[in-house]
Write a structure and sequence with these properties.
The chain starts with 9 loop residues before the first strand and ends with a helix. The protein is an alpha/beta fold and 945 residues long. The N terminus is likely disordered. The radius of gyration is 37 Å and the shape is elongated. Helix 34 packs parallel to helix 36, helix 41 packs antiparallel against helix 42 and helix 44 runs parallel beside helix 46.
Length: 945
């Protein structure tokens, strides 16, 4: 604020005038908006005009003790140059000297302040408080409000308590004071308790002598005589009296402008409302760096306020994500952020973050000089809450039960439990929204509402004090029970999926409702019904651990359960256990019991879905013939349904089973249809079984193509499969696509692609808590290490993987890894142990019949026998491998077996027999000629020739 004893001297350059003390920049006499940091840089460079200022010195001056990187400096230099003109003109004033710093190069003219600038404004500025030394994140708001005020004369800044309305209003007022020739008057109504004193309070602020009981006529007469800006602050509690007065002042004083701050709008003629939103906060995502976090105003404010009380403070990379979390949890509310920053001196950043959930955070005190209602969050919220009518305060208390966004229907259901009728509740919610106590939340389909976390914590205490919490919590749980049940009922049995995905933002409320239902003060009957309705919801969102927990509690909580609800609970329990804990026998029991209930209910859609779940389980435990039988049962159900989509999915089930058994021609035949993108079935049941049928069929197709001698098409299908799985954004589906397509790349010898996919699988499984998938990734990494010659590393990875897979009964991969392990042991001259390992794997397949990898196991056993000088035995095993490969139409295994046998015959002097065996197989290949096996086969043929 200008001071008459130490007036502001203007610094002129080009078309610009800079007033450092007033922090004002003019261009051609018109105030120019410039951000706070950019203005600091300009003032400092102008003070040192003609000198090269080191970048570190500039950062230290502008950011004081806050640690920022050079990128922030470059950003604000760019903003400064933009404000001073285009790139060519702006860079004329501020020049970058590479390796040294920046220099202000324009010639300066310093002038004494004009008498008219200060003399006319001294008396008015005495009623205008000083602005914040630095305002963060509000430059755009100040500029827009100033523009609105010029055009429309009456502007109200609306927002919740503590968001910074007063600070913004003061910044606007100071920015406009030259335009109003210093005639700016600030009136703080915060301490006014008698609405009848509103006109007198305005008159007193204007310095008018009031000599009558009614000061209004004299007030209006005075205001008509001159251009002026009136700033009315904290108007919400006297708004009914002030609104008609403000409307009359604007109407009768044509040169007067009014700027007000309030938690709700005046709703008068001519008013323009500017809603002040919270400061932008860093997004919730992994890997945020310190620079990322400090790019957001909320974080900048937090760090700036810490630095004010801790001069040595420097934000670290380790603490930056915590700062981002604090700002998000405080909803970007400036007052809340400042109060939290004030705790860092005592608790540190991590300690402050941990205390945010404590109700005592509402009582943290701020600046001693702050007005009472801004000294704690509780005081700020009490100010608004105490002004509410009874119906609105009761409605607001009830809304505190919601966690995150909620709909109007949900709010009305809760209000009904408080004996508030629908019309009254709708009116209350509308008013609470206008008073900034409820915020709207962006949503794709329908409008959502939410309470800011600080507001929710405050009114949550009020709900407990009122004695209403039990019935409100029950109404909340019953609403979401019915809501989820209705979504499930609208789907066509289990044949349509994705029905829950648009409602994922209700997840926090569903969790809260379940927690209350199964608590000591809750109702387990409601909990069982809610868990049954929520089971599919959790599966569709791939929240498998939560699905397991809640279905387990529900099944254990009731002696008798409605058959349909038990069917849903058992099915979801089986799926969640299978994918998170492994293939325990309890998975089969859950599916079997659920299938029995579906048959009793004669629900064909559920029967088919459960047969598919059982099919997954049987493939995972290695019972491939059992899986084929389940697929054949599914055929019978699909025929009754007479539904093309069901038929298609059953064919895919059969194709996968045939692939795993080893019938590659049938596998390709059944699964080829998956290459046609079918939007109608692409997401079929994805949410309910956790994976997409089409992707699994594509996996079987890609592998079947390589096994049947079409490597290039196999690679094409494998890449297409992963791409399609990525688009579904479904963790289980993507995991399955990675696991099974990795082998296509290993088989063709594209180890670079294989390595990339393996590392991705390991990371993906860890992030989504898919334990068996992680073990598979470790095993595949071991197999790749063997291929690259790291025998010891490969064996170690394979053994780790096998231990986990056996413990979780994830048998589908154990024989594959046992085969690789046997090869590794043989390479370490441990042929006997290698033979024992491969024999155990072959015996394991014997429990369930044939397997797609049996020809390869027989070949590996033969290779180890050759290494042990048992060539005659080896030849017999190789003949078996070749015969089985041909029966399975597995030309990939046949080529490998033929190469092994050709080498045995070559050593025995049977070169012509070896050539006759190998040449026709190689000649059959019309593609993939550069793949590793074919290159090796052609090399061997060259030797034979």
């Amino acid at each position: 604020m200008p001071d008459t004893n130490d007036q502001d001297s203007a610094i002129s350059f080009g078309a610009f005038r800079l007033f450092p003390r007033s922090r004002l920049l003019e261009k051609d006499g018109v105030p120019l908006h410039l951000g706070g940091r950019a203005l600091d840089i300009l003032i400092f460079l102008a003070e040192r005009a003609g000198e090269v200022v080191d970048k570190r010195e500039l950062v230290k001056r502008v950011w004081a003790d806050v640690n920022v990187d050079e990128g922030s400096l470059r950003f604000h230099i760019t903003s400064l140059r933009k404000a001073l003109g285009d790139a060519g003109e702006g860079s004329r004033y501020v020049v970058n000297v590479p390796g040294r710093g920046y220099c202000f190069t324009a010639p300066l003219l310093r002038a004494a302040p004009a008498e008219i600038r200060t003399g006319a404004v001294v008396s008015a500025l005495r009623s205008l408080p000083a602005p914040l030394a630095k305002m963060i994140g509000r430059d755009d708001a100040v500029e827009k409000i100033g523009a609105e005020l010029s055009l429309h004369r009456f502007v109200t800044i609306v927002g919740p308590g503590g968001i910074g309305k007063t600070s913004v209003a003061l910044a606007v007022a100071h920015g406009q004071y030259a335009a109003f020739d210093g005639q700016v008057c600030f009136v703080d109504f915060g301490a006014l308790t008698d609405p009848q004193l509103v006109p007198g309070t305005i008159a007193a602020a204007l310095g008018l002598t009031v000599s009558s009981d009614d000061p209004l006529p004299g007030l209006l007469q005075s205001l008509r005589s001159r251009p002026m800006l009136l700033v009315f602050d904290s108007c919400e509690h006297i708004i009914d009296e002030l609104a008609p007065l403000a409307e009359r002042i604007v109407r009768e004083a044509p040169e007067l402008h009014i700027l007000t701050t309030s938690r709700e709008s005046f709703r008068t003629e001519g008013e323009r409302v500017y809603r002040l939103f919270p400061l932008d906060c860093p997004p919730q995502r992994d890997g945020l760096s310190m620079a990322d976090v400090l790019a957001y105003p909320a974080s900048q404010l937090f760090v700036e306020r810490i630095a004010e009380s801790l001069s040595e403070f420097e934000l670290s990379e380790e603490d930056a994500p915590l700062v981002a979390d604090i700002c998000r949890r405080l909803d970007g509310i400036a007052l809340a952020i400042e109060l939290a920053a004030g705790r860092v001196n005592a608790y540190g950043i991590a300690g402050t973050a941990s205390l945010l959930d404590s109700r005592f955070s509402l009582l943290w005190r701020g600046r001693r000089t702050a007005i009472p209602r801004h000294q704690t969050l509780s005081a700020a919220l009490s100010w608004s809450y105490d002004l509410l009518p009874v119906a609105e305060s009761a409605t607001l208390r009830g809304l505190s039960i919601f966690v995150g966004p909620f709909t109007l229907e949900a709010a009305l259901a809760v209000a009904a439990s408080q004996s508030i009728d629908e019309a009254e509740a709708v009116e209350a919610i509308t008013n609470l929204l206008s008073k900034s106590l409820i915020a709207t939340s962006p949503a794709e389909r329908r409008l959502r509402y939410r309470l800011l976390d600080t507001t929710r914590a405050f009114v949550g205490d009020k709900l407990v004090e009122s004695g209403e919490s039990a019935r409100v919590a029950r109404a909340h749980a019953e609403y979401f029970r019915d809501f989820l049940h209705n979504i499930s009922a609208k789907s066509t049995g289990m044949q349509s999926a994705g029905g829950f995905l648009p409602y994922a933002d209700h997840l926090p409320n569903v969790r809260a409702a379940l927690t209350w239902s199964f608590s000591e003060s809750g109702d387990r009957t409601v909990g069982v019904d809610l868990a049954a309705s929520a089971a599919q919801f959790f599966l569709e969102l791939t929240l498998l651990t939560e699905c397991h927990s809640w279905t387990q509690q529900a099944l254990a909580s009731a002696d008798t359960i409605d058959r349909r609800k038990e069917m849903a609970l058992q099915a979801a329990h089986g799926v969640s256990v299978m994918f998170t804990q492994g293939n325990a026998e309890g998975v089969r029991s859950a599916f079997t019991r659920s299938l029995q209930l579906a048959e009793e209910l004669d629900d064909l859609h559920w029967q088919l879905w459960l047969l598919r779940g059982l099919h997954i389980y049987l493939t995972r435990v290695g019972d491939f013939h059992g899986a084929l039988g389940t697929g054949e049962q599914g055929q019978a159900v699909a025929r009754k349904l007479n539904d093309p989509t069901s038929t298609l999915n059953v064919e895919w089930m059969l194709g996968v089973a045939h692939h795993l058994i080893g019938n590659q021609d049938k596998a390709v035949q059944f699964c080829e249809s998956a290459m046609v993108d079918n939007p109608g079935s692409q997401r079929l049941n994805i949410g309910h079984l956790g994976y997409d049928d089409r992707i699994v069929a594509l996996v079987a197709l890609a592998r079947g193509l390589w096994l049947s001698g079409r490597p290039d098409r196999a690679i094409e299908a494998a890449r297409y499969t992963v791409k399609e799985a990525e688009q579904l954004e479904q963790p289980l589906t993507l995991g399955i696509s990675l696991i099974w397509t990795i082998y296509v790349f290993l088989w063709v010898g594209d180890w670079t692609s294989a390595e990339s996919l393996i590392e991705r699988l390991i990371d993906h499984a860890a992030r989504h808590f898919l334990g068996p998938y992680h073990a598979v990734g470790i095993g595949q990494k071991g197999e790749l290490l063997l291929r690259r010659g790291d025998i010891a590393g490969g064996i170690e990875h394979l053994r780790r993987s096998q231990a986990t897979l056996y413990a979780t009964r994830h048998r589908i991969m154990t024989t594959v890894f046992a085969t690789a392990l046997a090869e590794g042991l043989a390479a370490q001259n441990q042929a006997d142990e290698g033979l024992r390992t491969i024999d155990e794997a072959i015996a394991q397949i014997g429990d369930h019949g044939e397997s797609f990898d049996m020809p390869e196991m027989l070949r590996v056993k033969a290779d180890i026998l050759v290494q042990s000088a048992r060539a005659t035995e080896a030849e017999a095993w190789l003949q078996q491998s070749l015969a089985l490969s041909r029966r399975q139409c597995a030309r990939g295994w046949e080529l490998r077996g033929a190469m092994s046998l050709a080498r045995v015959w070559l050593q025995a002097g049977r070169k012509s027999d070896a050539q006759a065996l190998l040449a026709p197989i190689v000649a059959h290949y019309q593609e993939g000629l550069s793949s590793r096996d074919l290159v090796a086969a052609k090399g061997l043929l060259s030797t034979l020739n």
